[in-house]
Design brief:
about 325 residues; 3-stranded antiparallel sheet; 12-stranded antiparallel β-barrel; about 55% strand; Lipocalin; 3 helices; mainly beta; 16 strands
Length: about 325
């Protein structure tokens, strides 16, 4: 009974990051800042070693998308249906708890925009760039078995992660809008989580670093470079008990200016987003998460909203 209650206290924590990251990946050329819009409450929570998670999620995104000023595209509007499948495994890193994520997103996207003054439309579907992410909790979250976890109580956790995005998504250099990005990117991040009774406050800071896209759209430029994009996010989480918790989320990202064939674009990102998350356990192995976020301020005019749902199934560690 004790183990069941403890399990329910953190059930479902994995879900939202994967569906949001799938949305971020599908925007491709249209919005290079979109990868930073993933909002991850409880990303650095402790969980017992040896657990496995399967995640399936869906999200819907709609709104205005801003292109680089040097690209002759105006009034861009997109509608995106995104699905994601992921596998997660909790691990023991020399006495420190951690986990590894393998993420495969897919998307169906349609949009309209004016190109050189002429209205154009685009409908496309396919896989987005796959991702691999490694987390290690460096302080306050030791590697514990399910039995040992029964006596664990969170205070302060400090962790770090490294995400790698591979250029495996759909990409056609003859098209202005794609699902994949045709380049590698990595995101190192550090996070801190502090608990006070049923309340938990979290903060994370990371940076996206990109390789060049040497097969950009020829009519615009042959080479696309992008400066690092810095991402900061915060969460205020409340546990209602019995496997139910909610979070208020905020996300700020800045940087990410692009250079096309040596010409620097005036597209510095300085954008705020806010949202909410609600997670609840269906039983000991299944949980559901609902989430949504919207823009508060966007220097580049990327005003789009996202809502989604995800399901998680877990097994292992003597569950």
């Amino acid at each position: 009974m004790v183990l069941t209650k403890l399990w329910r206290s953190f059930a479902g924590f994995q879900l939202s990051r994967f569906t949001r990251r799938g949305v971020g990946a599908v925007l491709g050329m249209a919005s290079t800042s979109a990868l930073a819009t993933d909002i991850d409450p409880r990303a650095y929570s402790n969980i017992p070693v040896g657990l496995n998670f399967l995640i399936a999620g869906y999200s819907y995104t709609k709104g205005n998308v801003t292109f680089a000023p040097s690209v002759p595209i105006e009034n861009g509007k997109m509608e995106i249906h995104s699905s994601v499948f992921a596998y997660v495994r909790s691990l023991d890193f020399w006495g420190k708890s951690g986990k590894v994520d393998i993420i495969i997103p897919e998307a169906w996207m349609s949009g309209q925009a004016d190109f050189l003054g002429q209205p154009k439309s685009r409908k496309i579907s396919g896989f987005a760039d796959p991702a691999f992410r490694l987390y290690v909790n460096l302080f306050g979250a030791p590697a514990l078995s399910m039995k040992e976890f029964a006596n664990y109580k969170q205070d302060t956790i400090i962790g770090a992660s490294l995400a790698v995005f591979a250029p495996g998504g759909q990409y056609d250099s003859q098209k202005l809008v794609n699902i994949g990005t045709n380049r590698w990117s990595v995101k190192p991040e550090i996070g801190i989580s502090k608990a006070w009774g049923p309340w938990t406050a979290e903060f994370a800071a990371g940076v996206f670093v990109y390789t060049d896209n040497n097969q950009f759209v020829p009519v615009i430029a042959k080479n696309l470079q992008q400066s690092p994009l810095y991402n900061f996010q915060g969460h205020l989480i409340y546990s209602f008990g019995k496997g139910v918790w909610g979070a208020l989320d905020a996300n700020y990202y800045t940087g990410g200016r692009t250079t096309q064939d040596g010409k620097v674009a005036d597209n510095l990102q300085q954008n705020w987003r806010v949202g909410g998350t609600l997670s609840f356990a269906l039983n000991q192995q299944n949980s559901i998460k609902l989430f949504g976020n919207t823009v508060v301020h966007a220097r580049t005019g990327s005003f789009f909203d996202t809502i989604g749902i995800a399901w998680q199934y877990r097994w292992g560690a003597g569950l």
